[in-house]
């Protein structure tokens, strides 16, 4: 039997045909992430946004993904049922080229965290139309991935506190014994 570490991959399957644009997912997401929790709701703070075309009865949920420091050079353009959508309309990135997926007051990037700490993502729970379905699977963690995760962790610590501060903390730990 393999003794490799396992990781759980969570996926939210989006069934666009079932979404009716009610925006309950936006409401609960923004309320859950309000400070203090549930003290307010504002869809602009939601990590899921619904691209709405009510006249065509078309609603597309889009989740907030990674933050990017610079806008990309390649763009996507979608045509659905003959209507052409804006470039970047369905992009998940929090990017300098547009206002989506940014905290409205501070401008800080927003990213879906799968409602960390909750048993089930709240947007999935609140979607009464089964347009959002949670799927989970287990995968073996490759050694390389563990290393990458460690590197990413170190990188973000270095960004936040500075490399000198981290080296000082490490040497204090080493001298503890
Ligand atoms: S709660 Fe479900 S049906 Fe309503 S907008 Fe969100 S994804 Fe669509
Ligand atoms: S999973 Fe949670 S954080 Fe992500 S969009 Fe849904 S409600 Fe928001």
Name the descriptors.
177 residues; alpha+beta; 2 domains; two-stranded antiparallel ribbon; two-stranded antiparallel sheet; binds iron/sulfur cluster
Global structural class: alpha+beta
Beta-strand portion reads 15-25%
Average residue-wise pLDDT: 86
Instruction: Find the count of extended strands (DSSP E, 2+ residues).
Output: 6
Helix content: 25-40%
Q: How many alpha or pi helices?
A: 4
As for the number of domains, it is: 2
Question: How does this structure look, described?
Answer:
The chain has 177 residues and is of the alpha+beta class. The chain folds into 2 domains: 9-139, no CATH class; 141-177, no CATH class. Helices cover 25% and strands 19% of the residues. The protein is built from 4 helices and 6 strands. The chain has helices at residues 24-32, 122-126, 143-161, 163-174; strands at 6-14, 48-53, 58-63, 79-80, 83-84, 132-140. The protein has a two-stranded antiparallel sheet with strand order 1-6. A two-stranded antiparallel ribbon has the order 2-3. It has a two-stranded antiparallel ribbon with strand order 4-5. The longest helix has 19 residues, at 143-161. The radius of gyration is 20 Å and the shape is globular. The two termini are 38 Å apart. The mean pLDDT is 86. One iron/sulfur cluster is lined by residues 29, 32, 47-48, 63, 112-115, 121-123. One iron/sulfur cluster binds next to helix 1 and helix 2.
């Amino acid at each position: 039997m393999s003794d490799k570490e396992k990781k759980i991959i969570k996926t939210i399957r989006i069934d666009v045909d079932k979404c009716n644009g009610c925006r309950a997912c936006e409401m609960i997401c923004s309320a859950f992430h309000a400070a203090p929790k549930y003290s307010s709701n504002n869809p602009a703070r939601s990590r899921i946004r619904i691209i709405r075309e009510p006249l065509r009865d078309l609603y597309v949920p889009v989740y907030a993904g990674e933050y990017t420091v610079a806008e990309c050079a390649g763009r996507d353009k979608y045509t659905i049922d003959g209507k052409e959508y804006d470039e970047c309309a369905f992009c998940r990135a929090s990017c300098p080229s547009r206002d989506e997926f940014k905290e409205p007051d501070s401008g800080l990037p927003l990213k879906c965290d799968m409602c960390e700490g909750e048993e089930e993502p709240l947007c999935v729970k609140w979607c009464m139309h089964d347009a959002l379905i949670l799927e989970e699977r287990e995968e073996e963690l490759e050694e390389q991935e563990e290393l990458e995760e460690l590197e990413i962790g170190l990188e973000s610590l270095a960004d936040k506190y500075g490399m000198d501060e981290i080296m000082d903390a490490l040497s204090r730990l080493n001298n503890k014994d």
